[in-house]
Write a structure and sequence with these properties.
Layout lengths: L4 E5 L8 H9 L3 E6 L13 E7 L1 H7 L1 H8 L1 H8 L5 E3 L7 E7 L5 E4 L5 E6 L10 E4 L7 H6 L1 E4 L5 E5 L6 E3 L8 E11 L9 H8 L3
Antiparallel strand pairs: 1-10, 2-3, 3-5, 4-12, 5-12, 6-11, 7-10, 7-12, 8-9, 8-11
Helix pairs in contact: 2-3, 3-4
Length: 213
């Protein structure tokens, strides 16, 4: 199954010093072993936890208010250019925009599929030493990172690039970094459409993340 994505260079839409403020805010993320996500995980059965960092949506709104504004403004306009349907941001502020962060070579992002019909990723860092690539399986049945890697599309992070895609049928994950001193920061944005509205978001996902529906 072919995978398609749309990339915009939004560097000129970002505030002066955005990389520095993003890096400083990201350093305060919640770094730990996160349990695999119910329903959406495509990790091998023996993988119970994945080490990574997460800056929650309320922290993003407080530390990076410009990012929350772009999500509901200019980035929403770009999302509509990348989608055949009208696009809407999440009404629930708990998962509208978050930061996913990897630090050193021992972290990666979970292999999973998305529940929302359109995801936006703003890469906040570059990685000259390599690693941190976003990897999408062409096989919708792929259920571990080894299977994903056998037949895949690889997107390399470029700071200031905003990528839109539908990840519901393409298991995907982020590779570990190559440099022990490196940090990968990406802003993750959930968008919804009329054919797949926010009401379709699995209740199990909110229970897993927030302890409620």
């Amino acid at each position: 199954m072919s995978f398609f994505w749309t990339t915009f260079d939004v560097t000129n839409r970002l505030p002066v010093g955005w990389r520095q403020t993003g890096g400083a805010t990201g350093a305060s993320a919640d770094f730990r072993k996160f349990p695999r996500t119910p329903i959406l995980s495509r990790e091998a059965e023996h993988v119970a936890h994945i080490s990574r960092g997460r800056l929650h949506a309320d922290q993003v709104r407080q530390g990076l208010p410009w990012l929350s504004s772009l999500y509901r403004g200019a980035f929403l306009g770009l999302a509509e250019k990348a989608c055949a349907e009208r696009v809407r941001p999440a009404r629930d502020n708990r998962y509208g925009v978050v930061l996913n962060i990897q630090r050193g070579t021992g972290m990666r992002f979970e292999c999973h599929v998305d529940s929302n019909p359109l995801t936006g990723l703003l890469f906040c860092t570059d990685h000259p030493a390599g690693g941190g690539e976003l990897v999408f399986a062409h096989d919708p049945a792929a259920a571990d990172i080894e299977t994903v890697d056998r037949d895949c599309t690889v997107i390399r992070p470029h700071a200031g690039h905003l990528v839109f895609f539908d990840g519901r049928r393409h298991p995907h994950y982020a590779r570990p970094l190559a440099d022990p001193a490196d940090m990968r920061i990406v802003a993750v944005m959930n968008f919804y459409t009329e054919s797949c509205p926010e009401s379709t978001r699995p209740r199990e996902l909110n229970r897993h993340l927030f302890g409620d529906d």
